[in-house]
């Protein structure tokens, strides 16, 4: 990790520690929790798209898998919550490997197609066979560890953001390692990468599995926070939403995942005052973002910052 | 002749390759001696690049065998061949344009210095200083040290070719395949390149197999030349013999 990233991460950590102390409004903290959950999912997709050059349209599938598996294991089988979260992540990453091996051995965007299908299959399974079917189920045990059960919004805020910061640390370390350079090399030229001895298929599979771990972890945390699940939150729309966060935040910078999550999560809340035309304004803002900030917000800000410093 | 005192590092045995109905390579046989600069020449469409792609593993041959350091590498994927000590450069440059110049070299250092995915994620201090130093010394070797922090895509073609060469050296190969390294270079750049290729062979003891159209360069640096025409080996020998060979002259001038 570079010095600059370590400082930003440290500031973020301080901010996270003090935010629930200063703000007691549960509405704002709840939005903060959802930003964290979305950021976690978006982070995995940023590494996948920006560093391994692959698109996934099925992150909602892993997110839903994490949520449902962890919820069912703890509710119906009485497993301790941390264990059921762990098993949910394990199952999701296993499925990611099975999905990735055939589609990543081929050149081109087969992974996008495979994940699109996978996401839809998961959505249909949750609808048909999930507890409660389309209307979902509740009474999911809240998150508890070492006999302590989390109850307040502030506690969940801490829980989610601890994982966001851990995932961010792992991601930054990875990106700034030699493996990170190899990943970016794959993005620029697969032909040259293999000729330099980089096993590109294996690396791409690992990045994809990492993205599935982040997404299923986010899903499991979500399940134990809201304690109620229904399939509607795990459709293709959520995958597209995550894709939007990644693109608007900037795929070439991992911080873009957090920036994108903040924007896409907050925007509908701000636009609530516009009543019927909110979706219109939402669409307009996103279109303008894509048109005028192709690289995404974070890379754009870095560009401006570097210009200011040079002057 | 002294033929037996050196080992063969690369042996091409009865290699054939067809694209659809066209036979690109017919029963190719030749060997590259360890420590030599071996050139592969021939008119356009003779099958030179196809052969290089087959040696590096990017294309598959229909039949035959390729032995590298006395082991068959038939069917081995390209990344494994690179790990064995086989590096290459590309005719249509394949640099990592969005990486900085020194990061391109780091990508080359990956194969001998990789740490594993998980370990990379939990190691805080990033890339070893030692590797950065190594990448800079390679850049110095190919005369690109002053460009180390530039984005590779912003380099002129001549320097991009040097960068590819540096990146290949970074993988610590025993054999480098050069695919038309002088294409797009001016006379001065070509001269520098020929000196660099000789330096790499002499100082680093790396064998070179070069495909090149610039005859002055080829004749100036090669120990041995193999001539391909329409997918067949039509001549082989030292530069002075090749220049006088009637079938080579007719292949190039199109006479019968």
Summarize the helices and strands and which ones pair or pack:
The complex is a heterodimer of chains A (311) and B (256).
Chain A: H1 3-22, H2 26-51, H3 59-76, H4 81-105, H5 110-129, E1 144-145, E2 148-149, H6 153-175, H7 178-188, H8 190-195, H9 200-226, H10 236-249, H11 255-270, H12 278-292, H13 297-310
Antiparallel strand pairs in A: 1-2
Helix pairs in contact in A: 1-6, 2-6, 2-9, 2-10, 2-11, 3-4, 3-5, 3-9, 4-5, 4-9, 10-11
Chain B: E1 8-19, E2 22-33, E3 37-41, H1 48-56, E4 63-68, E5 71-72, H2 78-84, E6 86-88, H3 101-113, H4 117-122, H5 129-141, H6 157-170, E7 175-179, H7 187-204, E8 207-211, H8 215-221, E9 224-229, E10 232-237, H9 239-244, H10 246-253
Parallel strand pairs in B: 3-8, 3-9, 6-7, 7-8
Antiparallel strand pairs in B: 1-2, 1-4, 4-5, 9-10
Helix pairs in contact in B: 3-5, 3-6, 5-6
Describe the structure in your own words.
The complex is a heterodimer of chains A (311) and B (256). Chain A is an all-alpha fold. Chain A has a two-stranded antiparallel ribbon. In chain A, a hairpin with a 2-residue loop joins strand 1 and strand 2. Chain B has 256 residues and is an alpha/beta fold. Chain B has one domain: Rossmann fold (3-Layer(aba) Sandwich). Chain B contains ten helices and ten strands. A six-stranded mixed beta sheet of chain B has the order 6-7-8-3-9-10, with helices on both faces. In chain B, strand 1 and strand 2 form a beta hairpin. In chain B, helix 3 packs across helix 5, helix 3 packs parallel to helix 6 and helix 5 crosses helix 6. The longest helix of chain B has 18 residues. The two termini of chain B are 32 Å apart. The relative contact order of chain B is 0.18. The mean pLDDT of chain B is 91.
